[in-house]
Amino acid sequence: MARGLIAVMLCLLISSGKAFAGWYQVKNYEGSIGPAPVHLSLQRYDSFGSGITVEGSYFYDAKQSPIALYGKAEGTKLTLCEIADDKELDRVLVTGSKTPVDTTRCPLSLDISKSGATGTWIKGQEKFPVVLKQVAGLDDTAEGRVNGNVEIPFWAHTAAHRFAGIFTKTDAGICMTKLQVISKMKKKTVQSIRFDDADCNAGMLMTPIYMNVQMQDEEIISVNFRGGNGGYTVEYGFSPKTGTYHRLVH
């Protein structure tokens, strides 16, 4: 995903009246879609582009490839659509559309409760029950709360890795204190990148929380930081020799 998308998102969100801090409301779930174990994360909004009030990211444990979600909430009822590719992601969630989104044919329907969610996933002739348990969450819209181990599955991923941010509450506020690089094949963390960030800005740029790590190409990712004039990014490059990501200095 191109670095320039950050600027687009900032313009859209500033025009909607959002502030730089205090707008993340995220809940994480784990459970199953049919027989398949899944992890799912949802971010709620008062309103976000084309009537969207929910965005999210989920992955099947067996595949480890995050799938971007967007949709609408009506009370406890959520209807969620899946993003097919980067072009659709740009069109629907980054650039946005003046036409209200239509979620009537979207595959995922959930009924949210205090402890989790139940629902169905339907696509074509396939139909599976969904059972989820809430395991963590964060809310920085008021005094700032973090419950459980908040691990955000970012939309960015490569053929070999997905990326997950660990968000905690520090003396300076809520932010991402660690980025986990997770091997899709091994299904486990193979590298942890820690942020020595006294101001607690990592992962808190005013975008959907799932966009705070972005792909530049298959070997370079960028991490978004709140602060300065519109935030800033730090790039990390993958070294085939060491099998790890290293901060790039330009």
Outline of this structure?
The protein has 250 residues and is mainly beta.
Can you put this structure into words, describing what you see?
Helix content is 8%, strand content 54%. The protein is built from 2 helices and 17 strands. The protein has 2 domains: 5-21 and 29-134; 137-228, no CATH class. The strands form 3 sheets. It has an 8-stranded antiparallel beta barrel. It is mainly beta.
Topology at a glance:
Layout: H1 5-15, E1 25-33, E2 36-48, E3 52-60, E4 67-74, E5 77-82, H2 86-95, E6 108-112, E7 116-123, E8 126-139, E9 145-147, E10 150-157, E11 161-170, E12 173-183, E13 188-194, E14 213-217, E15 220-225, E16 232-239, E17 244-247
Key features of this structure:
2 domains; disordered N terminus; 8% helix; single chain; mainly beta; eight-stranded antiparallel beta barrel; 250 residues; four-stranded antiparallel beta sheet
Give the ordered list of helices and strands: HEEEEEHEEEEEEEEEEEE
**Binned strand content:** over 45%
Largest sheet: 8 strands, antiparallel, barrel
Q: Cα-atom Rg, whole angstroms?
A: 17 Å
Structure class: mainly beta
State the helix count: 2
Q: How many structurally independent domains? A: 2
State the assembly state of the protein chains: single chain
